[in-house]
Amino acid sequence: MLRGARRRFPALPSLYRRKSCAVSETPHYNPSDVEGRWAGKWAWSQPRGPKSYILSMFPYPSGRLHMGHVRVYTISDTLARYRRLLGEEVLHPMGWDAFGLPAENAAIDHGIDPSSWTVQNIGVMRGQLDRMGCHFDWEREVTTCSPDYYRWTQWLFLQLYNRGLAYKKKAVVNWDPVDGTVLANEQVDSHGRSWRSGAIVEQKLLDQWFFKITHYADALLEGLQDLDWPDAVKNTQAQWIGRSQGAYFDFHLTGMSERLRVFTTSQHTLYGVTFLAISPHHPLVKTLSASTQAAVNGWRSDDSAVSNGVYTGLTAVHPLTHTPLPVWVADYVLTDYGTGAVMCVPAHDDRDFLFATHHSLPVLPVVEDGVLIHSQQCNGLSIQQGANAILEQAVTMGTGGTMTTYKLRDWLISRQRYWGAPIPILYCDKCGIVPVSEDKLPVLLPTNVQFTGRGPSPLATNTEWGRGCCGKPHCRARKETDTMDTFVDSSWYFLRFTSRHSNQPFTSQEADSWMPVDTYVGGIEHAHLHLLYARFITHVLHDIGFLATKEPFQKLIAQGMVQGLTYREEVSGRYLRPGEDIKGRGISVSWEKMSKSKYNGVDPEVIVQRYGADAVRLFMLFKAPPELSIQWEDGAIQGVSRWLSRLWRMVHTHIGAVRGGVASDDQHRDKIVSATHKTIKQVTGAMEGRYTLNTALPELMILSNVLRDHTSSCHTLPYHEALSTLVLLLSPMAPHVSAELWEGLSIARTAYTQAPTIKGGVFEQSWPEWRKELLDLSTSRAIVLQVNGRKRCVVEVSVGVAEDHHQLKAILLSHALEKGLITSHDNIVIASNGLLVNIVSSS
Ligand code: ANZ
To answer: Is the pLDDT score of 65 beyond 50?
Structure first.
C-alpha cells in the first residue's frame, strides 16, 4: 500500500478492539476555509526520478478566467502533481500570450494603455489561478508583450530571415475604406462589414512578410508519425499540410511560345480532357483582352461559383492526341494550388462536369467498369496500369512527369497593428532591406501612442519612432512598421520556459534537458495553427543546431469544450438572456460552447465561491474524458461536493474512533485491503496512458463506499491505510481538502504505535503502488455445497455474496436446482455458516 508501510502488524491486544465507531464531533467541511489555509503553501518532496515537462497552453490575458481555462489548467495541474508524487522532476510553467487585438481595442474604445490593461489583467488572472489551487513554476513566468520576451521573438525572426525562411511578397488584406485601416479577420463581421465603421470591407494587395513553412511540409508530415497525439489531431494536421502526389502535363498553346502546365492526380483520364481551365489570377490572364480581364475582375470573391467562366480565345494542344482544346478562365480553379491550371475531364470530375454543362463543352468518358476506353493504345488497361502507361508516354515525349503539391501555404506573419512584436527590419535608402543587428534588439514599441482605430497603424504614423539606422554613415533608414502575428510569440514560448532567466532566448543545454514537452494540454481549437507553427519553428531551430529535438510536443491532450445550456428564440435564432420574458415564443434549447454572446456562461469565480475550488476541479475532471465536451450542470457539481463532505466526515469519524483505541485488523481486513489496491491500480491507470482522468473519481467513490459499509472496522489499521491511500490518490485532483485531511490522518496514525511513521504533508509522499497478490484477496470465496449432509460441489461466490447469508442461500439453492441436486418440489431447509451451505431436502 503506502510505500515503506507494507509490513503486517501483529494484532493488538483485544483490550483495544472496539466493535463499532461512534460518530464523534466532526468539524464542518467549509471549502473556502480549507482552501484559504492551503492556497500557495504546497510543500514537495525532493525529486529523484526523470524529468517531466507538463505544459498547458498559456492564456490570452483577457481579464478573467473562463470555464475553458479552468478545465485545461485543472488537467495539467493534476498531471503535474501526480508526476511529482511519482518522484519525477516536474516543469509546470505558466505565462501569458499577451500581444493581440483586445488590448488594442480597449485602447481604441476606452483610451486605456494596452500595456497597463494587460498587466492589470494578468494580476487578476494569476490570482484566480492560485485560487484554483493550480501550482505553477511562477519564477519562470513569461509575458510575450514584455521587451525581455519579444526581443527574442525578434531574434527568432532574424534566424529565419538569415536562412531565407522569412521573405516579403504582396498579399491580400482586409481594407476598411471608411476608416482607411487594415482589419484583422476577427474585425470583419459575417456580412463582410467592418466592426467599427460598418463599411463593406475590401480586399487590398499589400507587401507582407511570410515564413516559408511550405519548405517544411514533408518534414512536418513525417514528424507526425512518432507523436503520441490523438488521431483526429494528427489527421487534421496532415490534411492541413495536404500532400498530394500526382503528375503534371504540359500543353502547347497554339501560336504561343509558352506551354500551359496542369497538375492532376488522375493521370489515367488524360484522354478524356475536353478543355483546360486556369484560375482568375493565373499569369496568362494578364495577356488576355481587356474585355476578358474585365469579365474576370467582375467576379466577386463572395459569390464564387463553379459556373463563373470565360473563354480566353486560346487553344491548347493535347500532348498525346494533338487535339486542339479550348482554354477557359474558371473561378473554381485555385490560384495557389498545383499550377493554378487544370485539365478538365467532365466525364469523371463533378466540378468539370457542372462547368462543361453550363458552357456547353463536350464530355468524353474514358473509364468504364474500371477499364480505360477511348484511350488509344491504353484501352483495356486498368486505372493504375493506364495511369502508369500514360505518364510514361508523356515523360518520354518530355510533356509530363511526377509532381507533388501541398495545400499548405506560407505563413503570413505581418500585421498592420500596434500591439505585437515589431518586425526587426530596416528599409535603408541606400542598402535596401537590412535586418536589425541582433545586438540592437529589441526594437521597442513606442509608448504614449494615440489610438483612434482609423488610418494606418500607430507605428506607421509615428515618424519619430520610424526613424532607424542601418549602421552605415549618413544612413536614413525607416523601420518596418508591421508587427508579428501573435502565433509567432506562441511558437517558441515552451523553449523560453526552460531557460527563463538566460540572456539568450534559451540555452541549448537547458532546453535539451527539458524538451520535448512530455504532455501538452490545450483546446482542440488550436489543433491546426498553433501546433503546426510551433512544430515548424522547433524543426527550424533543430536544423540550425540550437535544439536536439525536432518535435516540441510528445504527447497531446486536446481537451474538449465546456458547454452551457443555451436558449434561442426559434423564429429569429436570437440568443436569450437569463430571465428574459419568453411568453408565447417558441424556444430552442441546446448545449453550446460557453460564450458571453450566448448568455450561457458560468463564471468560475462564482462557482468556486459556492462549491470550492476542489469540487470544481473534481467536476471538471470527472464529468467527461478530457477529449470530450463537458456539459455544465449544477446537479453534477453538487454531487461531487456532497461526496467531499462525506469523505470529510468519514475521515473525522475515523480520527475520533482512533482516539478511543485502535486495532491492527479484524475480519474485514482482506476486503478493505483488496479494495484499496484495486483503487490504486485503477486511479494510477487513469493518470497514465490516454488519460481517462474521468474514471479516477468514481473509483475513489467505490472505495469510500466500501469503507462506509465497514464503519465497524474504522479503528483498524487497514481502514486507516485505506483512508490515507484514498486521500493520497485524491490529492492531485483536489489538493486543498487532501492536504487538510492528510494532516488529520497523520496525527491519527501515531495511535498505531507499530505502524511506521509517515513524515510530511500529502505532497511529500510517494504515489502508492498496488500489489497484484493483494488485488484478489477477497474477491471470491469457495463455498462447500452439501445436500443432506453430503458434499456435492464447491461453488465460488463473491465476497459480498458470501457475507450476505440471504443472498448466499438463494444463490446456492438455485445452483442446486440447476444441477438437479434437488427439485423445486422438495421441501427444503437451508443452513449456512458462511463457508458451507447445507440443503436438507425432504424428498
Ligand atoms: C484531372 C482530373 C480528373 C482530376 C478526374 C480529378 C478527377 P487533390 O487530389 O485534392 O490534390 N486541381 C488541380 N489543381 C487545381 C486547382 N488549382 N484548383 C482546383 N482544382 C485543381 O486534387 C487534385 C485534382 O484537383 C486534380 O486532378 C485536378 O483535377 C484538380 F476525374 O485532374 B484532376
So the answer is: yes
**Which residue is closest in CA terms to ligand 1's atom 31?**
348
- pLDDT at residue 757 above 80? yes
Q: Is the CB of 638 under 6 A from ligand 1?
A: no
Quick: pLDDT tens for 219-241. 999 999 999 999 999 999 999 99
User: Which atom of ligand 1 is the closest one to the Cα of 332?
Assistant: 19
Domain 780-842 of CATH type 3.40.50.1370:
no
Q: Is 831 helix (H, G, I), strand (E, B) or coil?
A: strand
CATH 3.90.740.10, domain 244-400, yes or no: yes
Residue 484 Cβ inside 6 Å of ligand 1? The answer reads no
Distance 805 CA to ligand 1 centre (A): 74
Considering the domain 14-37+630-774 in this protein, what is its CATH number? Answer: 1.10.730.10
d(CA 559, CA 16): 51
Q: Could you give the CA distance from residue 732 to residue 70 in angstroms, rounded to a whole number? A: 15
Model confidence band, residue 13 (pLDDT cutoffs 50, 70, 90): very low
User: Domain residues of the chain, as ranges?
Assistant: 14-37+630-774, 244-400, 564-599, 780-842
Q: What digits encode the pLDDT tens for the residues 806-822?
A: 778 888 888 888 888 88
Q: Is there an atom of ligand 1 within 6 Å of 333 CB?
A: yes
Q: What is the pLDDT of residue 778?
A: 58
- CA–CA distance from 340 to each of 82, 197, 578, 669, 734 (Å)? 53, 36, 52, 76, 57
Give Dmax over CA atoms of the chain in angstroms.
121
Residue of 241, 335, 337 with the most ligand 1 atoms within 8 Å of its CB, for mutation = 337
Residue 497 and residue 319: Cα distance in Å, rounded?
58
Is the beta carbon of 181 within 6 A of some atom in ligand 1? Answer: no
Q: Hey, is 761 helix, strand or coil?
A: coil
Question: Which of 796, 762, 756 lies closest to 780, judged by CA?
Answer: 796
CA nearest to 385, candidates 367, 372, 368: 372
Q: What is the pLDDT of residues 261-301, one digit of tens each?
A: 999 999 999 999 999 999 998 999 999 999 999 988 887 65
What does DSSP assign to residue 541?
Answer: H
Out of 243, 263, 331, give the residue to mutate to test ligand 1, the one with the largest number of ligand atoms within 8 Å of its CB.
263
Q: Residue type for 454, please?
A: R
CA 265–ligand 1 middle distance (angstroms): 6
